[in-house]
Amino acid sequence: MTLESRRSRLRAMAVAGLVVAVAALAAGFPKAALGVLAGMPVGAVNYWLTSSSLGRGQGALDPRASARLMQRNLLRQALAVAALVAAAPMGIEFLLGVLAGVVTEMLTYFWDAAREALGRKG
User: Fold this and answer.
1) Is residue 78 part of a domain?
2) Is residue 122 part of a domain?
C-alpha cells in the first residue's frame, strides 16, 4: 500500500465524515454532528494502524507481519470501544455520532463498491 493511496483514503474518510456531520446537523442533531467530528480521529488512527502494518502489498504477509497485523487489529478494537465508552455519558445522540465517525473508513469502502458496481473506476 503506497503512501499516496493511504493519503487518498484518509482524504475520502475526512470527506465522508464531514458529509455525515453536516447531514446530522441539517437533520437537527447537533450532538450527533459533534460526535462524528469527535470520532473521526479515532477512525483515522485505526485506518493508519492497519494500513501501515501491511507494507507495500507485495504478496502474502510473513508470520511476523501477520502477528503485527493481528495485534494492531486488537488495538483498533480497543480504541473504538474506548471512544464509545467515553462518549456514552454524553448521551445516545453523541454516542451514535462517535460511532459514525469511527466507521468512516467503512463508508469509503461502500462508496468504492458502489462505484465499482456501477462500472465507474477511479
Assistant:
1) yes
2) no
What is the number of domains present in the chain?
Answer: 1
Q: Is residue 11 part of a domain?
A: yes
Would residue 41 count as lying in a domain? yes
Distance CA 16, CA 12 (A): 6
Count of residues in the chain? 122
pLDDT digits (tens, 9 = 90+) for 17-27: 999 999 999 99
pTM of the full predicted structure?
A: 0.86
Helix (H, G, I), strand (E, B) or coil at 1: coil
77 residue type, one letter: Q
Under DSSP, is residue 45 helix (H, G, I), strand (E, B) or coil? Answer: helix
Would you say residue 101 has pLDDT above 60? yes
- Please enumerate in sequence order all residues whose Cβ is within 8 A of that of 13, keeping only pairs 6 or more positions apart, or say none: 40, 43, 44, 47, 104, 105, 107, 108
**In the predicted model, what is the mean pLDDT of the chain?**
91
